[in-house]
Amino acid sequence: PRKRLTVPAIRARKGGEPLVMLTAYTVRTAQLLDPHCDMLLVGDSLGQVIYGLPSTVPVTLEMMAAHAAAVVRGSYQSLVVVDMPFGSYEASPEQAFLSAARLMKDSGAAAVKLEGGAAMAPTVRFLTERGIPVMGHVGLTPQAVNLLGGYGARGRSAEEAAKIVGDAQAVAAAGAFSVVIEGVVEPIAIEITRTIACPTIGIGASAECDGQVLVAEDMLGLFERTARFVKRYDDMAGRIGAAAEAYAAEVRTRAFPGAEQVYAPKA
Ligand code: KIV
Ligand code: NA
């Protein structure tokens, strides 16, 4: 297997071959996605996708650390980035450092991601200067759902567009090695991509971003509700339902287990 991609290698991809990123929360998913990706994101979207929570707000540091450790164990080449959950970093740069260090020590992941713009820039700088690579996340920031009132696209007004561009520029200037741009009208993503020095990773943003990310369960057709920006590459929910239906029918007719699945006594 190839050597794991490093933060400087990701940074060096600015304006080059697009960066490929998907979320992973479990070891098996990480094993399957890793050969095709540059980065794996242990997203706090796991709150809804695997815990059935109503938003990412209730997700804890313990949940993130456990899933991040599994994803590191299941991957060899992708840079593993772990989301800092709501409440673990906003109070101060010091709080963010302790939480990020804990995530990295518990999991072996090499970088963290945190949501927010200009207000988080001092925190991005504080972590970066102390050896923790930070990925930014601007635009639609799901941890702020209670403030935003929903998950609609951001930046439809000129003022909001300017704020989002300024947010991305602030976290990039503070040392972020990459910035996720989520759910914004396309010209914002293009302007950010052209004006910041590190790679942008789009989700509901633009093909002009330096890379793209999707929630794996969304693109696999496994999660029930998906945003407009998701493209489905499979219908795994349909295939899992069909497999469960076939199994149930065979159990009920005693067709399963068959001769190959039972142990014969020694002759
Ligand atoms: O939690 C997540 O999956 C994310 C991506 C959608 C960027 O933050
Ligand atoms: Na997230």
Automatic annotation (TrEMBL):
Subcellular location: Cytoplasm
GO biological process terms held by the UniProt record: methylation; pantothenate biosynthetic process
Active site: 182 (proton acceptor)
Protein residues bound to 3-methyl-2-oxobutanoate: 44-45, 83, 113
InterPro entries given in the database record: Pantoate_hydroxy_MeTrfase, Pyrv/PenolPyrv_kinase-like_dom, Pyrv_kinase-like_dom_sf
Predominant cellular place of this UniProt entry's protein: cytoplasm
Catalytic activity: (6R)-5,10-methylene-5,6,7,8-tetrahydrofolate + 3-methyl-2-oxobutanoate + H2O = 2-dehydropantoate + (6S)-5,6,7,8-tetrahydrofolate
Pathway, per record: Cofactor biosynthesis; (R)-pantothenate biosynthesis; (R)-pantoate from 3-methyl-2-oxobutanoate: step 1/2
CDD domains, alphabetized: KPHMT-like (cd06557)
Molecular function via GO: 3-methyl-2-oxobutanoate hydroxymethyltransferase activity; magnesium ion binding; methyltransferase activity
Taxonomic superkingdom: Bacteria
Cofactor(s) needed by this chain: Mg(2+)
This protein's UniProt keywords: Cytoplasm, Magnesium, Metal-binding, Methyltransferase, Pantothenate biosynthesis, Transferase
The protein's Enzyme Commission number: 2.1.2.11
Any Pfam family hit: Pantoate_transf
GO cellular component: cytoplasm
Cofactor note: Binds 1 Mg(2+) ion per subunit.
Chain positions recorded as Mg(2+) binding sites: 44, 83, 115
Gene3D superfamilies named in the record: Phosphoenolpyruvate-binding domains (3.20.20.60)
Subunit: Homodecamer; pentamer of dimers.
Its job: Catalyzes the reversible reaction in which hydroxymethyl group from 5,10-methylenetetrahydrofolate is transferred onto alpha-ketoisovalerate to form ketopantoate.
Family listed: Belongs to the PanB family.
Protein name, entry field: 3-methyl-2-oxobutanoate hydroxymethyltransferase
Source organism of the structure: Sphingomonas abaci
